[in-house]
Amino acid sequence: MNYFKISIVLGVLLSVYYYLDTYVLPTLYIFDPEVLHGIVKDSIAIAPPGNTTALFYEINGRLRDVYGDNIIPYNTDDWMFNNAGNAMGSMFIQHASISEYLIFFGTAIGTEGHTGVHAANDYFFILKGEQWAHDLGDPDPIIYKPGDLHVLERGSVQQYSMPTTCFALELAQGWIPAMLPFGFADTMFSTLDLGTFGRTVYFTAKSMIESALRGKF
What is the DSSP string of the chain? Predict the structure, then answer.
């Protein structure tokens, strides 16, 4: 009898999740990956060669032209380190909500790690350098260069590497709160960098609350 009740509850929960995931969640998205890709390619084309900071400002300005106050103005003070999946880099949060985040992410010296398995689609627009990806069973790397888009579909997994300096614009669309344990686990159980943990919680929560107050979830 208890197993029957449990199966009924699980069935209801799975049905609700399917409905929300299929019919509700996509209506919350405000970013179009194709629009972002165009902004990235146009910005790379006109930004001064080798000036990554100028490229950040250019992309952020164009994003604000399209998406307005949904994009946090770029500045050099609000970057934070990020350790996840054994990889280390730094990020700047431009937008965060329960259904999406948009960040600059990268490293000046290279890194390598596990993508994690997520209930979200991840769009990685390369701005500078190269990102290498390894699919299980494929002996050759997939190499993404400036202007390229690397899409990691929800539930997929890869090994990835940024062999040297590499920065990207990253968009995730899906159940963002479910990604947070992956984003915090290395900090909590390995690096113990509580300063970075505090900054990450602060800027993530701040952006999510501001998005909610604008009716963007």
Answer: -HHHHHHHHHHHHHHHHHHIIIIIHHHH----HHHHHHHHHHHHHHSPTT-HHHHHHHHHHHHHHHHGGGSPPP-SSS-EEEEETTEEEEEEEEEE-SSEEEEEEEESS-EEEE----SEEEEEEEEES-EEEE-TT-SS-EEE-TT-EEEE-TT---EEEE-SSEEEEEEEEE-GGGGHHHHHHHIIIII--HHHHHHHHHHHHHHHHHHHHTT--
Q: Which amino acid, 121?
A: N
**C-alpha 131, offset from chain centre:** 15
Give the orientation angle of helix 52-67 with respect to helix 33-46, to 10 degrees. Answer: 140
pLDDT computed for residue 7 by the predictor: 78
The whole-number average pLDDT for the span 94-113 is: 98
pTM for this prediction = 0.93
| pLDDT at 1 exceeding the cut of 70 | no
Structure tokens given for 154: 């929800």
